[in-house]
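Journal club prep — side note

Before the paper discussion, L.F. wants everyone to see what a predicted structure for a comparable chain looks like in token form. Sequence:
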Amino acid sequence: MTHGPSLLARLVQRLQPLLLGVLAALALGGCASGVRLDTSYTSENQDSRVLFLVLHYTVGDYDSSLQTLTKPSNRSVSSHYLVRDEPVVIYRLVDENRRAWHAGPSGWQGHRNLNASSIGIEIVNPGPSRRADGSEVYAPYSQAQMDAVIALCKDIVARHNIRPDRIIGHNDIAPGRKQDPGPLFPWKRFADEGLMAWPDAAMVAAKKPVYEAQLPDARWFQDRLTDYGFNTSRSGQWDDLTRDSMISFQMKYRPAVYTGAPDAETAALLDVATHPQGMRMSKPGPAAAPYTTRW
């Protein structure tokens, strides 16, 4: 007589799909995607995706700035950090591993659309306003706020090994379209703190009389602005993009006068800033690698 499957065998047969599923889940080690990864090896041939650090002002108070940078709108924008003015607080709004929408159409040193390769810091500041005579005046930054910004920049630069010539303002990467962080931003203090290089003062003083005697033409200025990092025009004419790039350069290194007009001091600064030995670090910066000029 032929006997059918035992009770135990039938039970195992019914539970087999469930048991296989449990074993499969255990074998995956909790990997939600189902992909098993072996991380035993790490390549030494890599660096950070972050190449640039971009400084902005918000053109608004803290409440409006936070709203703009965190909520959807007709022109959704964001930044990795927001530095409040009063009280001074640093807020992280976007993880550094993710792309923030702070740079917009932009370019620097031949790179385009810097959102994908930069960290953005927004600083609460109202930006420019108009006097009764129509002239423009910018709001200052407080000492405490700048202390926080510089500490944050040092931390970011050290972790991502960002080059000194890639610590830039929004107006550097979008001249004319943007003016932030403006002429009152303390770029010289950034240099004094070892975050960026500064044109050698003795070289600038030596070259200034040369350009007082004869000022170069538009193409010379355009070539130097491009060598410095701006994605500017090579038209040979004093066009709007050349003027706007000059304004951004003057705001950083000669903020007393930033009309965009060519003059001997701006020519001397541009000459030194693009000279192989012209940019000086006041002290070692926070980055892991020593500073090497790219010119």
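L.F.'s comment for the group: The longest strand covers residues 52-57. Keep this in mind when we get to the figures.
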